[in-house]
Write a structure and sequence with these properties.
By secondary structure, this protein is an alpha+beta fold. The chain has helices spanning about 5-20, 35-45, 50-55, 95-115, 145-150, 160-185, 190-205, 205-220, 220-235, 270-285; strands at about 60-65, 65-70, 75-85, 125, 135, 140, 245-250, 255-260.
Length: about 300
């Protein structure tokens, strides 16, 4: 095969993306539509990002605790996420702590979106260094029962302690396997996590069902394995993996489940998260689950939310 200059450029570009800047969307801003080009020109000149978005024809399609989401007719696949610190009396009521959280959330999302290791994060084009705005893949919200399509092995009610425990155990196993890989000793096995799985299996009928289901998830469900590996790498709490923080992007015509926000505790107090984490740890560390065998809230054939 004759190696043309164009082919050589393509190889260098792909290798640069893989090694030097993994996951970064490399296209110029014009790739994402004329609206984004005009928007960036205005914010680079010093205009407020929200005003710039409105002036060039962006439509607000969503508002969260810390960010507003805008879409432009010139691109239906990507959206702007702009940080805000607006309180209930917007525009006069400004909350600096909320704004700082917004900036951090954008920076965190830009970081995860540049990581080509995981498909579980939306792809992101970083906006500015402070995190005032980012350009992200448009995520389709999950419909009722749709989460079950990605985890058919699971019969738990979403949000139950059992589901959190499954995620926590997967995260723990992924972390232990990662440390084994880093050590270079390929003869090692994830003995600590396996001990916990065996302990659960021997504890009760529920524990046996739980451990068998977990093994099926880990062995046969690539989405679950990738999700829990990403949770281990980024320190994502199991409580963040819920229907309102998950969505779908279309890549090469296929649906890919993605996690929207990687920051923890945006809509709950730290004490609530700590309590839930403690409950999960207690469930896994000291399984006494005979009383749960007939608990329909944990094992159920009802569709997921």
């Amino acid at each position: 095969m004759i190696l043309t200059y164009r082919h050589l450029r393509k190889i260098i570009r792909e290798e640069w993306c893989r090694v030097l800047r993994p996951g970064m969307i490399l296209e110029s801003l014009s790739y994402f539509g004329s609206g984004f080009v005009k928007f960036k020109g205005l914010v680079d000149s010093g205009m407020d990002p929200h005003k710039a978005a409105r002036d060039v024809g962006f439509k607000q399609i969503g508002k969260g605790f810390t960010r507003r989401v805008y879409e432009h007719p010139s691109s239906q696949e990507f959206v702007l996420k702009v940080a805000h610190g607006a309180g209930h009396g917007y525009p006069d009521d400004f909350d600096q702590k909320r704004f700082n959280l917004a900036l951090r959330t954008n920076r965190d999302e830009a970081k995860s979106g540049r990581d080509a290791t995981y498909k579980i994060f939306p792809k992101v084009y970083p906006g500015d260094a402070e995190g005032n705005w980012i350009l992200s893949e448009k995520v389709i919200p999950l419909e009722f029962g749709q989460l079950a399509e990605f985890f058919p092995e699971v019969k738990f009610t979403p949000g139950s302690m059992a589901w959190l425990a499954v995620l926590d155990l997967g995260k723990e196993l992924a972390k232990e396997l990662s440390s084994i890989t880093a050590s270079g000793d390929w003869s090692k096995k994830p003995t600590e996590t396996q001990k916990k799985i065996d302990q659960l299996s021997d504890s009760s009928t529920f524990g046996k069902k739980f451990s068998m289901m977990f093994s099926d998830l880990w062995d046969d469900n690539p989405t679950f394995k990738e999700l829990t590996k990403a949770m281990a790498d980024y320190g994502i709490a199991p409580q963040e993996v819920r229907s309102d923080n998950l969505g779908i992007v279309l890549r090469d015509g296929k649906e890919q489940l993605v996690l929207l926000d990687v920051s923890v505790g945006l809509d709950r107090s730290i004490s609530t998260l700590d309590r839930a984490a403690a409950d999960v740890e207690e469930l896994l560390a000291e399984p006494d689950l005979d009383a749960l065998d007939d608990d329909d809230d944990l094992f159920t054939d009802q569709p997921w939310l």
